Amino acid sequence: MLDLQGLSMGEAIKEYLLTMGEGYAYGFWKLWRQLKPRSNYASVHRYFWLLKEIPLIVYVRSEPGENRFNRRLYSVVSGMETSVAWKDPVRALYPRRRPPYKH
């Protein structure tokens, strides 16, 4: 099993994809919820979307899933393995346009 302890979700997805070669959101979520039992699939799915938009991951192919939905498999974009965006993909995609408010 992957050691995802202490990693942000973005970094954990990177480790999952690098270890597996290619993977899908539900497959990652099954591992992630063992570490973070209160996590939900919607947040994992959103992170895959964010990582694709940056782009840190790329869609590779689809394959039949366990139910009527196909699995969408992704891999890490070559050369992006060391990007700082893995730590906080939300901030990477939506950087602050002005300094934070001072209280």
Describe the structure.
This protein is α+β, with helices and mostly antiparallel strands. Helix content is 40%, strand content 15%. The protein has 4 helices and 2 strands, in the order H-H-H-E-E-H. The longest helix has 13 residues, at 41-53. The model has no long low-confidence stretch (mean pLDDT 91).
Give the strand order, joined by hyphens, for the main sheet: 1-2
Helix content: 25-40%
Described by the principal axes of the CA atoms, the overall outline is globular
Number of strands: 2
Question: Into which percentage range does the β-strand content fall?
Answer: 5-15%
Q: What is the averaged pLDDT score? A: 91
Q: N-to-C SSE series?
A: HHHEEH
Number of helices: 4
Helix/strand class: alpha+beta
Give keywords.
103 residues, alpha+beta, two-stranded antiparallel ribbon, 4 helices, 40% helix
Quick summary:
With 103 residues, the chain is of the alpha+beta class. 40% of the residues lie in helices and 15% in strands.
Architecture blueprint of SSEs:
Layout: H1 9-20, H2 25-35, H3 41-53, E1 57-64, E2 70-76, H4 89-93
Antiparallel strand pairs: 1-2
Helix pairs in contact: 2-3
